[in-house]
Amino acid sequence: MNNRQAIGSWLSGPRQAAEDMGVDFGYRGEQLGLPKEGPGSVAPLGRRVGAIVVDWGLCVLIASSLITGSYDQATSSWALLILFVLNVLTLGTLGFTPGKRFFRLRVVGVDGGRLGIGRVLARSVLLCLAIPALIWDRDSRGLHDRLARAVQVRI
Predict the structure, then answer these.
(1) DSSP class of residue 58?
(2) How many C-beta neighbours within 10 Å does residue 9 have?
(3) Where are the beta strands (DSSP E) in 69-132?
(4) CA distance linking residue 147 with residue 144, whole number of Å
């Protein structure tokens, strides 16, 4: 490996460097038995971020208009509680939140079925802690999804 290749591998990251050496990681969701693209495939990062932004905006709007009357520190605390309740109620019954529905996403178990209430509660608590949602595996699943044995897929 010459200096140019070494610098290129550093800039592109370890995954690209490994792929350049012949390692085949497959596509996101392959290990879970999901299709590469289309309905049922792993949801892309942009849609997932958009969905949580929509859900958070709805929760802040509800908290500021119905509970606190203005936007202050208490509004954020109430919005977090509303986000938790929203996730538990909608994921436990429908499989998606309003934001996920808007972006055509659904949360399912890795076995393809619905999440039980225990897995929905665990996922929602970890999502509200924020840090587990920022740690991903090779299938782009957050730690909150991994621990709940869930995956976000396209509808």
Answers:
(1) H
(2) 16
(3) 105-109
(4) 5
By CB atoms closer than 10 A (0-12, 13-18, 19+), residue 125 is middle
Q: Global pTM?
A: 0.81
pLDDT at 2 over 60: no
Residue 69 CA neighbour count, 13 Å, CB half: 0
Return the structure tokens found at 104: 């055509």
Residues in the chain: 155
Task: Give the integer Cα–Cα distance in Å for 45 and 127.
Answer: 15
Tens of pLDDT along 12-35?
A: 666 677 767 777 677 888 888 889
Tokens of 79: 């919005």
How far the first Cα of the chain sits from its last, in Å, is 44
Token pair 């209430």: residue: 117
CA–centroid distance for 8 within its chain: 30
Res 6 pLDDT > 60: no
SS3 (DSSP) at 148: coil
